[in-house]
Amino acid sequence: xxxxxxxxxxxxxxxxxxxxxxxxxxxxxxxxxxxxxxxxxxxxxxxxxxxxxxxxxxxxxxxxxxxxxxxxxxxxxxxxxxxxxxxxxxxxxxxxxxxxxxxxxxxxxxxxxxxxxxxxxxxxxxxxxxxxxxxxxxxxxxxxxxxxxxxxxxxxxxxxxxxxxxxxxxxxxxxxxxxxxxxxxxxxxxxxxxxxxxxxxxxxxxxxxxxxxxxxxxxxxxxxxxxxxxxxxxxxxxxxxxxxxxxxxxxxxxxxxxxxxxxxxxxxxxxxxxxxxxxxxxxxxxxxxxxxxxxxxxxxxxxxxxxxxxxxxxxxxxxxxxxxxxxxxxxxxxxxxxxxxxxxxxxxxxxxxxxxxxxxxxxxxxxxxxxxxxxxxxxxxxxxxxxxxxxxxxxxxxxxxxxxxxxxxxxxxxxxxxxxxxxxxxxxxx
Length: 430
What we know:
Largest sheet: 6 strands, antiparallel
Distance between the termini: 133 Å
Number of helices: 8
Shape: flat
Structural class: alpha+beta
């Protein structure tokens, strides 16, 4: 009976002690040295108590046992969280990388396909020469301009057998019999794809690989004609450059497609006026030269010095004079990026420098020269016309021959026939 009250007292004391132990975060206790941490708490609470050492030891042991178990469980949970977090981080990293890759691929696909959206509303003229664009949908309406064969227009709407179109600076009606609407393959075939350089210096390589040979370097802003898009999805595009073809990374070029558009009536009149003036100047120069030759043969002069100067000025503005001047530099070296007619030039530098002699400012870019002057057909070429190829340019010399800065091996030379390469445009300056 003596022991029973003691047991009850001990249990009560233990309950009191447990209730009096302050709450604390078991995660704050270091796993190593946990016993010291638990004992310090108990001893602090019992410092002023008259409880026996045996009770203190019992309570401390109980705390150590239970708190140690909780600490072990908490540590295990924390380790699991760390592992899960690491796994999530790795997974997130892989997902981000995959998403970036998909986004980059999607961006390239968008660039490749960005001109497909409007194919259904695009038309191409398919005629021997041109189709008239009129103000109203009838053949007696006012003439606004001409849509030449293979030129492209945007279709606004259809009205009977007529289509209202917009092309270049002209908006009007054309007869439906002379255009083809929505033919994607035809539209692609009449356009020229351009790769515009968007980096300081672009390397053109022999193969679609960064380890392949560098064929040439192209400056920022240069426009290269796309020869093939087959390798586009792999990050490369085949382009035409002076001296051949090579590959460039799609990371450093912007791909666009260029078309030929309609000519307004005012634009046509201005072009014809310039051409007529050129013809008259050439005819005047020819007559002056005949008079000079006749005077030289007879030992007399039939013209004053002022007349001679005028004739000379007329000759210098003719296409044939351009060819005569260019011919002085036959055999001189080809140098990529150069513009010196004596020390070395590339094809566009050659055309630019020859025309500069006649006071005409032209761009040092074979692709940009496709926009110089005004367009004429291949069958209408005359001496002095600029002949544009894929990635190359020359001056028509007459007789189905061109003069150009050909390549490093041949330098400035004549080449025949003029269409020895695919001609993409013929431009007339005078």
